């Protein structure tokens, strides 16, 4: 059974849906309770929204990370977009965590500010992912 961690880029194994849904990112791993017959679940953030999926429904979207600029597999633009996407994911995950911890602790007006920041981070995350998806599908790298 494949194991994914937070930040892993993933595709759906369902090929009919894969192309339309694009690459998602694992936002949260929900560990199995007790024995291993009950596999972990993954909250995966797709452009179309959040989905809760089993590992069997997911496949790692393998980015071939080649740092050798002379390799034909190396695409500097993809690397740049991927880094931007991972940074955006980091900001978003931090924001969501902060928001979860702030519920009922800080003033309502302050919470609204935190929530607005998270919304902006979410939008930025979607933009960076969209650019990465588009580049990979058009450039074929
Ligand atoms: Zn490329």
H/E element order: EHEEEEHH
Taken together, the total number of domains comes to 2
Distance between the termini: 27 Å
Low-pLDDT segments, ≥5 res: none
Number of strands: 5
Query: DSSP helix count?
Result: 3
Structure description:
The chain has 141 residues and is of the alpha+beta class. The protein has 2 domains: 9-60, no CATH class; 76-139. Helix content is 47%, strand content 18%. The chain has a 5-stranded antiparallel β-sheet, covered by helices on one side. A hairpin with a 2-residue loop joins β3 and β4 (49-54). α2 runs antiparallel to α3 (108-139). The longest helix has 32 residues, at 108-139. The protein binds zinc ion. Zinc ion binds at residues 75, 77-78, 135, 139, 141.
Short description:
The protein is of the alpha+beta class and 141 residues long.
List the helices and strands and how they pair.
Layout: E1 9-12, H1 15-21, E2 24-30, E3 41-46, E4 49-54, E5 58-60, H2 76-102, H3 108-139
Antiparallel strand pairs: 1-2, 1-5, 2-3, 3-4
Bound molecules: zinc ion.
Zinc ion binds at residues 75, 77-78, 135, 139, 141.
Notable features of this structure?
single chain, 141 residues, alpha+beta, 2 domains, five-stranded antiparallel β-sheet, 3 helices, 47% helix, 18% strand, binds zinc ion
């Amino acid at each position: 059974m494949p194991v994914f961690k937070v930040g892993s880029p993933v595709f759906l194994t369902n090929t009919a849906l894969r192309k339309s849904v694009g690459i998602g990112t694992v936002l949260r791993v929900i560990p199995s309770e007790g024995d291993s017959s009950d596999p972990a679940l993954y909250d995966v953030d797709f452009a179309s929204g959040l989905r809760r999926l089993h590992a069997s429904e997911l496949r790692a979207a393998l980015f071939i990370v080649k740092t050798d600029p002379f390799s034909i597999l190396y695409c500097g633009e993809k690397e740049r977009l991927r880094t931007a996407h991972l940074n955006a994911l980091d900001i978003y995950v931090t924001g969501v965590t902060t928001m979860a911890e702030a519920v009922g602790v800080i003033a309502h007006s302050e919470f609204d500010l935190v929530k607005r920041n998270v919304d902006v981070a979410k939008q930025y995350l979607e933009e960076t992912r969209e650019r990465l998806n588009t580049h990979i599908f058009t450039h074929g790298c």
